[in-house]
Amino acid sequence: QVQLVESGGGLVQPGGSLRLSCAASGSIFRVYVVDWYRQPPGKRRELVAAISPGGSADYADSVKGRFTISRDNAKNTVYLQINSLRPEDTAVYYCSAAGHWGQGTQVTVSS
Description:
This protein has 111 residues and is mainly beta. It contains no helices and 11 strands.
């Protein structure tokens, strides 16, 4: 059983940065691919980034160059660094691993 808890969201001005965290329980977390998704208001959930157990990362085209996913297996935590935030990045951000989901963290980009 894997439990995931996201944190780090908030209200930020356009151009700002945030670092989201996804903390997992369970020592086998390190063997899983971990995904970050987001769901903007009124829209479908979309995959924005993924990281393999070895640290290889993939990104949606819409976030390449601004988002960086990383993981610290010793801390059972995956991070999503978000730079140059835009209003269209406003969404609830979720992490997912092994079919499990966190509760999400709200990111709001507004001046």
